[in-house]
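Format notes (please read before filing issues)

Several people have asked whether sequences and C-alpha cells are stored in separate files. They are not. Every record keeps both together, in the order shown below: the sequence lines, then the C-alpha cell lines. Line labels are part of the format and must not be stripped during preprocessing.
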Amino acid sequence: MPPTESKSAVRALLQASAILLGQHDLPAVLQGILNIAQEILAADAYALWRRADNSDRWQIEASRGLSDSYIRESAAVYGDLSSAQRPMLLDDVHRDPRLENRMAALIAEGISALGAFPIHVNQTASATIVFYFRAPHRFSPEELDYASTVANLAGSAMANAELICRQREFSTRSEILSRITVLFNSSLDFDSTAQAVAGAIVPTLADWCSLALYQDGKLNHIAVAHQDPACVEIANEFIRLYPERLDPTQGALKVILSGEPQLVSGITDEMLVAAARDARHLKLLRALHVWSYVVVPLSLAGRTIGILRLVSSRQRPDLTQDDVLFAQEIAARAANALENARLHREQTALANRLERERAFLSLAQQAANAGSWEVDLTANPPAVACSPELGKIYGFDPGAVPELQQTWIESFHPDDRDLVIHAFNEAVANRTPLRYEFRIVRRDGEVRWVLARGQCTYAEDGSPRSMMGITLDVTERRAAEAALLRSEKLSSAGRLAATIAHEINNPLEAVTNLIFLARNTAEPQKDQFLEDADRELQRIAHITRQTLGFYRESAAPRQFALDETIRQVVSLLATLFNRRESEPILDLEPLAIEAVEGEIRQLLSNLISNALDASTLGAPITIRLRRSWLLHNGRLRRAARISVADRGDGIPPGQVSRIFEPFFTTKKDLGTGLGLWVAREIVNKHSGRIQVRSRPAHGTILSILLPISQDPLA
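Then the structure lines:
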C-alpha cells in the first residue's frame, strides 16, 4: 500500500472510530464497520459473521458484495473459519480442507481467497469480519494491520452498542413487564387479559406470541398475537387444522413435563420440510416464517399448567437466553393471573350457585311454610341468625328479622320455653339431632305449633360451634291430626258401644224376665227373683261406670295404676275375646305411671283390638307389664314396658315399616287404618317409644315404652 494510501487509511480509521463509538444502534454500527473495511482495504465482498447465542452456529449479520443466494446458504454455519480465534488468511480457498463443507457455496460465489479476522466483543470472540476476493490474493503486512485494527475497532463499537442496546432493552422489558402486570391486575377475565398481554409482547420482543393451557392431555390456545392480523388468521388456521402433537421427548410436552424452558434457533427450510405432515401443512409452516422460538412453562405451585411461546422470524435477531429469562418472568405473572382468574371464576360460580340455592331454598321454605336459622354458639351470648321465612312464621315483617333474632326465645310459649331450651342443650351436649315440637306466640298473640329440627357442628377441639336447622309451621298438621284422633276415638267409641250394648242387653233381658216372674209369683220366691234382678242391675251399673271412666276426658297427666287400667280395658273387651274364642293371658307387674289416663286407655284398646283381629281364632292374647328403661334425648329414664302379643299370621316383611302410616291396614275390609297411627301419636305425645316385631306364621308383638314420669327434667 503506497504511503499516501496508508495516511488516508489511518485518517479513515481515526474518523470512523469516533463515529462508531458514538453510534448506539447496533445495525448502524455493523454497517459502519463495513464502510470502514471497504474504505481502508479493497476487496470484492465483505461480511460480518456473528455467533448465535451460546451455540456453535454462526450467521451473516451484515454484508457487502455477496449474493442473496450465498447469504441464504450461509444462514447457519457451524464452527468453520468464521469461528477462528486468530486471523485466518487463505490465498486459495480451493486447497484448504477446512472449507470442504462450504466449497460448493464459495465456488458458486466465485470466491478464490479470503481473510477472516476475529472480533472480540467483551473479551469473547463472538464475531468475525471476512474479506472476500474473487481472485488469488495475499495480504500485505499493512493490510493485516489495518484489518486487525478494523476488527478491534469493531469489537469496541459493537460492545458499546450492545451495552446501550441492553440498557434500552432492559428499560423496554421493564416497561413491558409493568404493562403486563397492570393488565393482569386490572382484570380477572384471564382470556381477554392473556390476549392483551400477547399483544403487548409483539412486535417489540418477538414476531409471534401465544399462550396455551394444558388441559385433559391437550393444549388449549387462549391467546395468539402477531402485528399483522392476516398472520393471526394463518396461525389460528394452523392450530385448528394441525393440533400440536405432544411428544414427551420434545417440544411443548417436554417443557410441560420437565418444567424446563426450550430455546431453538436457526430453523431452516429443510427442517420445515422434514416436520411437515402434508403439502398444506408445509405451506402454513412457511407462511409463519419461524426462525427461532422460546417455549417456557406456565408453572403454579410446582405444577405446569400451560406454556408461553415467543417466535421470531429471520428479519430480527435470534431469540437468546435473555429472552428465555424474560419469557419466564412473563409466564410467572401469567400463571399468578391465571390462578387469580380461576379463583375468581370459582368464587363467582359459587356465589351464583349459592344465590340460586338460596332462591330455591327460599321458595321451598315458602311452599313448606318453613324457615331456617343458625345459632352461633361461639358468641357470648349465643347469636341467632334467621331467614325472612322464619320471621313470617313468627309474625314479623321481612324488615323486622333482626328484631326476631333478638327476641326469638321470648317468642316461645311460656309453658314450653324451658322444655325447648332443655331439648336444645341436650342435643348439643349429646351430639344428637334436635327434633322438638312446641308452641310459639306470634306478635299478634296467635299461638302456633312449630317443629324445630337442627344439627350441631363442632370445632376440631370438640367444642360446639353452631346449631343450624329449620322450623316448620305444623299448626295445620296438628289440627288435622287432632281431627283424625277425634275421628278414631269416635270410631273406637262406636265399636265399644256395640260391645257394651251386647254386654248390657243380656242382663237387661234377665231383669225383664225376673220382674215378670216376680209379678206373677207369690212370696218368698218373689224376693229371690227381685234379688237376682238387682244383681243384674248392679252388673249393668258396673259396665256403665267402666265406660264412663274409659272415655272421661282429662287433658292433664295424673298418676294412676297402669296394671289396673290394663285389667279394666281387658274386662271391657270381654265380648271381643269371647267372639274370637280367645283368652287374655295377663302377666302384669304392679306399676304406677304419670300420664293422661284416657289416652292410655285408648292406646291399650287399639293395641288389644288389633291383636284380636290379627290372631288366629281361639288363640290367646298375651299382655305383659314390666319395669324398664327408656333412652330419650340422650338420657336414661325409668319406664314401663307394655307388650301385646298375638299368635296370628304375622305382618309381611315389606309392610312392617308402613303399619304406623295413617289409613294403612293389613285387615282388608276391617278398620280405618288409623288405630296404630293413633297409638303412635299417643306414645310420641308421652315421649315414649313404640316397637314392632313380627314373624310370618308366628304372630306379632307390639311393645310400648312409656316414661313413668312426664317431667323430662326429672
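For reference, the curators noted about this record: The chain has a mean pLDDT of 81. The CA atoms of residues 140 and 314 lie 37 Å apart.
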